[in-house]
Amino acid sequence: MPLGLEAAVVELGRIVADQPLTAVLRRVADLAVQAVPGADDVSVTLLRGGKPSTVAFHGDLAADLDERQYSLGYGPCVAAAQAGATLRIDDTARDDAFPDFSATAARRGVRSVVSVGLPDPDRRQGSINAYCFGRPEHPSITVEAQLALEQFAAFASVALGNAAALAEVGERADNLQIALQSRAVIEQAKGVLMGRHGVDADEAFTMLATQSQHGNRKLRVVAEEVVAEVVRTAAAAASAPLSPSRGRSPSS
Predict the structure, then answer these.
(1) Which fold would CATH assign to domain 5-169?
(2) Would you say 31 and 7 are in contact if contact means Cβ atoms under 8 Å apart?
(3) Rounded to two decimals, what is the model's pTM?
(4) Is 2.60.40.420 the CATH number for 171-238?
(5) Coiled coil located at which positions (predicted)?
């Protein structure tokens, strides 16, 4: 059952704090279908480095038609994302603005299309794209429905921006943890080489770096192998049976 615009916006405010970015994107697409009369399939397009991609969708047809636009190099969702504007096709069978795309959409049963560019406060360009099949109850996406989609897009942009910011914070924290772990294992490997070869810390690091370059492998991987070798050797020595000489008491 459709939620309506107000309820969908309220739901948008609830989904950011406890869900990953991918889940937020999917929920935005689902809510748009429920908030906008006539929106049968919906997709979310984001531009990354100027290249468009569909990051979420409700209905496979929306994703397929997005990909058609990307392959052509133009279309309403791409143009809306680039311009931050709203583009609509009232009748795909009679559209002259995007004839190749509209012909494909018409063959797939899509009657009208509206793409709304996302507001861009964080320099994230994108669009929400609504596809209407032209059902009797909703023959097209009306001007009123377009206004609802534009209002929804404004709130969705905030939700997506917040979710993306949280995801970036989490990614930075993960990267920091990986960096700290890498540094720790490199220091351990340097200690192993210093003890094994009687070299100082700088020479031990040079040995690791040289092995990394010659093997075309990350320094962390080489360091892990050095440490793992020591662990295996120690474990093997600990589990080896005692020889008779080792097991004989001093008095015997």
Answers:
(1) Beta-Lactamase (3.30.450)
(2) no
(3) 0.60
(4) no
(5) none
Domains of the chain: which residue ranges?
A: 5-169, 171-238
Query: According to DSSP H, which parts of 16-94 are helical?
Result: 21-35, 60-72, 76-83
pLDDT in tens, the chain (252 residues): 456 676 765 666 666 555 666 777 888 888 888 888 999 999 988 888 888 989 889 999 999 999 999 999 899 999 999 888 999 999 999 999 999 999 999 999 999 999 999 876 455 688 999 999 988 888 889 999 999 899 888 877 776 765 555 545 445 555 556 656 677 778 888 888 888 888 888 888 788 878 887 777 787 788 888 888 877 777 777 776 655 555 455 454
